[in-house]
Here is the input.
Amino acid sequence: MLLASVMLYPLLSFLFLVSFAKKLSWPTVATISVASIGLSALASGLLVWQLSASDNQLLTVTLWHWFDLNSHSGSSAVNIGFYLDGLSGVMISVVTGVGFLIHLFAAIYMKADKNFARFMAYMNLFIFAMLILVLADNLVLLYLGWEGVGLCSFLLIGFWYQEKSNVLAARKAFIVTRVGDTSMAIALFLLFSTFGTLDIELLSSVLPVINGADTDAVLDDKLYWIALLLLGGAVGKSAQLPLQTWLPDAMAGPTPVSALIHAATMVTAGVYLIARLHHVFLLTPEVMHYIAWLGAITLLLAGVAALAQNDIKRVLAYSTMSQIGYMMLALGAGAWSAGAFHLMTHAFFKALLFLTAGSIIYALHHQQNLFKMGGLLQKAPFESALFIIGLICLMALPGSSGFFSKEAIIAQLWSSDTAGPMLWWCAILGALLTSLYSCRLFFLGFLGRARFSAPIQAEKHILLRAALVALAILSLLGGLIPLELSLVFPNSVVLASKNEPSWLHTVAILTPFIGILAAWLYFKPYRLASSDNKQVLGMHNGKLAQFCQQGLGFDSVYNTFIVQPYMWLAKRNKNDIFDQIMMLNTWYVGLWHDAIIMVQNGSLRWYLAAFGIAILLLTGVILL
Amino acid sequence: MTTIPLFHVLILSSLLFVIGFIGVVARKNTLFILMSLEVMLNAVGVAFIGAGSVWQQADGQVMFILILTLAAAEVAAGLALLIRMQKRYHSLDIDLLNRMKG
Here is the structure.
């Protein structure tokens, strides 16, 4: 029952806030929304502790029977039931723990907004949907959470809906992730028609058996498509190539939303889905190979794009994309627990980075342009220190949490069956890019001389700072949290360290430092930039830089090849024949409407005459 | 004393009724509409009296007295409404009361 209560608190809080949004004052709303997530976090802490104490590392609860799914091979019950194992344990700790700190930050950050209650209600709903997704014991319920997360991201990205660009960004996020969702829905249909059940536990017990039996070409083919379509769903939610275009635009939302989307919820859903259904993927090594390559390409492209961004939040957005690429790479290589570990540490330091960036943006009067910052190291030492901690973790310098998780991934790539040396080099190159764009961000924002004139007005609320400090501590020490996932992923790819060169680890550890050194030399103008803007901007006007800045042209490709033809078709078909048939109905109804309205002329004498004539007619009918 | 045949009485009452109804429908002045209503009521009354006298029963006359009472009450209410209307619209044109137009 404790398991169900984790998601009960955010739901109750959401319902309460939505019902009484207008009547509540700031302290009430803040207390309720933050406390509900705090209670969830406590409950999930307790659950994880119980989980480690239990024998089979498994907790389940079935609340009620939802409906039956019928197929030709029988029916299968779909329950509102929850399932907690090591993997979902990690997820709920991250979702509620990091979510709690983000809520705490948001309650203070958004204090002045007049729709504060609505904002916190959506945030609570977001956490609720993510918990459903993570804890669901069948794929139908998981899909409910999946869609709920999509809805909440739409609501929150478009939270300031009075501005058109925000609305467009929200719509884009919704539609692009919808492409992935459709592919996932088809995968679920295929899964059900093949195996007759969508229960995750049942599926995972059915699948290895099938593998052991005589390999069936038809089944293999089906599994291949299922895995590919599931990957499509994960790609949409986790903003991987080719459905990554929504993520940078999603920065239109308030900063705590960005933190929530990037750290605790939403983008990690795809990674979770693949890890959860790793049985399916283990049977289809080709798809795992695709996942690995997809992750590697995304991580490189996003790293390149991050190098050319002007907006501090967009740099972080691209960096999320590339870090999720690492997780995908790990999953593709069969390093499941390393992927989950990186998911956790990434949640810590990305939340820290986003929230710190948020408080910097706030302190600079909503200035997000890096070229208008500079010199923050002296002006805002507290925020700068936290940001440096976040960047250190992002670059995976030894000792930080990012180091442990990223090294765990990179270490398993070389000898993995589905990855290999090529992907190992991609990961190293990605690490180099990461340290390059991190340094560029740091030099532009924090070194040099201040390029803004307005005085800084930092939010110094003690709770806000406490949230940031807690995240910083988690980021630094998160790597020491032991993750016991061997029961979840029993048949992880065995690490036969076959002919692994001895220099692998040295290179992996040294790469970030090489990146920093290169950045130190190459971005010298950024580092020393004074208030003279021309010098800084001078090296930033190349065609290539602009191309990178616009996300490597994906947006324009989609625009020309998908959006515009579709719009053209829609415009062409505005007066299509089926519409006209429908319009005939309205015309007919309208005709009668006009006829009857003429009778209602309001003149009493006409009514009376009609009355008399009717009586005359009636009498006539009766008499004759 | 020769009795008047019932048929003649009914012709008279129908004529009166139709005249009254046409007056109600065709007249624009509310006062005249009220008067036409009185004519219609009295047409019914004539039919009752005629029928009563033909069948030698008092019921017809009882009904006529009832109608008379009704007419008195109706006129009282009608005239009151008329005064309100005059005060409000400064006119007795029934077509002014067309706010029910659909």
Observations:
- The longest helix of chain A spans residues 164-195.
- Residues 284-533 of chain A form one domain.
- Chain A has a mean pLDDT of 82.
- The CA atoms of residues 158 and 466 of chain A lie 28 Å apart.
